[in-house]
Design goal:
The chain has 244 residues and is mainly alpha-helical. Among the domains are: 30-127, 2-Layer Sandwich (Potassium Channel Kv1.1, Chain A), CATH 3.30.710.10; 196-222. The protein is built from 12 helices and 3 strands, in the order αββααβααααααααα. It has a 3-stranded mixed sheet with strand order 2-1-3. Strand 1 and strand 2 form a beta hairpin. Helix 6 packs parallel to helix 8 and helix 8 (162-175) runs parallel beside helix 11. It starts with a helix and ends in a 7-residue tail after the last helix. It comes from Laodelphax striatellus (Small brown planthopper).
């Protein structure tokens, strides 16, 4: 009898733990939904974000600071003080701000091919790491031979996630070669100069980790593309663009 009871108890405990976990998740979701509705109704808000297009967003400082290093620093440092309640954000559109706030309160983010670059740049500027991660995941998922060069160039200058840069390079070298080999050869000097400038910028910022990552990425594409290995890669991956 004791053996049976000892076996059943963990199952019941696990079932109860899962039930409690689901209940807590539901309560958390309901709480954030309520806070989101309060924000929309401008209730209990303690800060105002003003954009160039005239749009005004009422927010709760504690909520937005939990997701953004920019706002956390803005609202908590002694330089600004607790009286900092009006924030001007130049260069941010109301559509982008709406999407970010929806993520902050509801953990829901609508990412499309049209808005991903703007979202990523804005999230990087404001320190919304969760939004940055989701945008990078979107870019990785939707990378293809037609857009890998564009993503590569975007990641080179804009993206802070070095994995995006390396993924774009990999796509250029492997997945995209049938469509972009001519482009790469034609613009070799331009691409090399872009990478050189990026390396110099990272070096000046003393960011050794990013510098090392970039050096590895640069070496990969130089070895595979600029040193005459395009044909070998195409043959290895059976991506010469011909039909059987």
């Amino acid at each position: 009898m004791e053996t049976t009871r000892n076996v059943a108890e963990p199952k019941n405990s696990l079932r109860e733990a899962l039930r409690q976990k689901d209940g807590m998740a539901t309560m958390s979701s309901q709480a954030m939904q309520a806070l989101y509705e309060l924000r929309e109704e401008r209730l209990l808000c303690d800060a105002v974000i003003k954009l160039d297009d005239g749009q005004i967003f009422y927010v709760h400082r504690a909520i937005i600071s939990a997701c953004s290093s920019f706002f956390r620093t803005l609202f908590t440092t002694t330089l600004n003080g607790s009286d900092k309640t009006n924030i001007d954000l130049p260069g941010v559109s109301s559509q982008t701000m709406n999407l970010i706030l929806e993520y902050v309160y509801l953990r829901r983010l609508t990412i499309t091919n049209e808005n991903v670059s703007t979202l990523l740049v804005t999230a990087d500027f404001l320190g919304f790491l969760g939004v940055i991660h989701l945008c990078c995941q979107f870019l990785k998922k939707h990378m293809n031979p037609r857009n890998c060069i564009g993503i590569y160039k975007f990641a080179l200058y804009e993206a802070t996630d070095m994995n995006i840069y390396r993924s774009a390079l990999s796509a250029c070298v492997i997945m995209g070669l049938p469509n972009i080999s001519d482009y790469i050869h034609k613009h070799r000097e331009l691409l090399m100069e872009e990478k050189r400038q990026k390396l110099l910028s990272l070096e000046n910022n003393n960011n050794q980790e990013n510098l090392n990552n970039m050096a590895v990425a640069v070496a990969a594409i130089e070895n595979a593309v600029f040193n005459g290995q395009i044909e070998d890669i195409l043959e290895e991956n059976d991506m010469d663009g011909t039909e059987n």
